[in-house]
Amino acid sequence: MSNSPPIKETLRQARAKLHGLRSGEGCWSGRLSASALSTATAIVALVMVKRAVGPNDPRNDRLVEEGLAWLATHANTDGGWGDTIHSRSNLSTTTLVWAAFGIWPDAARTRASTIAAAEKWLIGRIGGLDPVTLATKILERYESDRTFSVPILTHCALAGRLGMGPDAWRQVIPLPFELAVFPPACFAALQLPVVSYALPALIAVGYARHFHAPSGNPVVRTVRSLALERALRVLTTIQPTNGGFLEAVPLTSFVVMSLAGSGKGDHSVVRLGLEFIQHSVQPDGSWPIDTNLTTWVTTLAIHGLAATGTLELGELERVATCDWLLKQQYRRRHPYTNAPPGGWAWTNLPGGVPDADDTAGALVALKTLGAREAESREAAAAGVKWLLDLQNRDGGIPTFCRGWGKLPFDRSSVDLTAHALRAWASWRNALPAELQLRIESGTTRAAKFLRQTQESTGAWCPLWFGNELEPDDYNRVYGTSRVLLALAETRLCPEAAARAVVWLAGAQRADGGWSGGLADAPSSVEETALAVESLGAALEYRPELQSALEPVLRRGVAWLTARIEAGTWLQPSAIGFYFAKLWYYEEMYPVVFTVAALGRATRVLGA
Prior knowledge:
Strand order of the largest sheet: 1-2
Low-confidence stretches: none
Strand content: under 5%
Mean pLDDT: 92
Number of domains: 2
Structural class: mainly alpha
Distance between the termini: 13 Å
Number of strands: 4
Number of helices: 25
């Protein structure tokens, strides 16, 4: 450790890398990982369109061939696939890929060994490949949440992996797509079996099941038939202009394959969705899980650059980034989730939807930038109100929609709640008195939610950013570090913060880094940086912890410094996306989190 360069020198290198990634527009775009899951669903969607409308575009055959070649090349040594090339094999993705190989006529001949290895993995994992076993295990993986399990089984049914004819579709649980014709305000009361963001899948996948195996109940069958055209009009209304629902290839592909495979191949939703899929393919033949996280990584970059206490951006740079962020705020009610104006999405593209984490991040970033004062204050007032209106009765903050239910995305989340606290605190004194009163009330309720959800160990379990090496897939280092950062900055819940400090410091591994918190897993740049930043914030809040925390922080900084010196710090780790059973990585994360960690460390440890 004594031979390591000073923290400020290491920080200078990391900041230079982050500055170099900034685009001419003043934002940071990042790059998402290639996804076997996305690639498999895109392939099946392309094939189903070909079957429905004929080979009118030879480009689709090429995309299918190149996608299958990428999948074969990136199979894990055990024969299965994970969501990223750095992920261990999992049931959902391996099933989707196996089905994709099954739908292409030439694959049985040209990719026989790849298919055999996948089948061996699946049999070893679930005991058999018969439709009942496969469907049972997929449904068990996601329990009562049908958001992914039913689309996965639909994908398999369309690919012929569940058998042939109506009997194959009996393994696919019917989704009540007819409920989509009700006003969005009724969705919470209707208790839909999917999360709020999955309305397109509810409609398209539900229709596919109805088309291939209608309900035996004549009343239900008639209601669904009568509701179909209205439900499809809803689907048309909420489709973005570029065709990509949520900018997500899997969701868009599930919609396209379901409609194209059920007599609707010429529907406008299919045509527009197909264009999105075609335009989203990467040069290597794979598809990413989502198009980009530009708004999100931009706000993270601003946070990281400001971690030393001074934002080292020139005035023109600050104004450019501020203008870009202001342009991303939604000024109208969003047709997809019916969200009111005032929020931000994770992306600058048409498929984005306003959500709590990105709205909080944008608010904090605007305050940090300190540019366009009048415009920023007006935007902040709308954004703060948007977050306050989103707050659930339990005091926590959900992702998209208030009061939808207990499924992922719709339940309150500690990481989102902590971020909202930081956003409210950053703008509180600059807003009108009536909004300040609402912030005070919302803060009290949010703090109570965080106290009540803290585990007995002192940790918090987040919704986002899972760790696939953890026994339950959740990443307590991420959750605890994000909540601790908010409590340290806002001076809330001192007893809960103290317990979190003890847990997080105790989760440090022997090598000085951090992983997900519970498992004996390798340390990662992202998790180590998050822990260092939040423990540094806690030390800034409570200087009396210097003797206890300084050795912990110096070991964490040394771990990060060693990775920077070795040139390995830019390799991202797979983390949980949507909720902790779907994995991706973002190439910006190691950079922005490391800059934030080293910046905070310079404040409490010096050079």
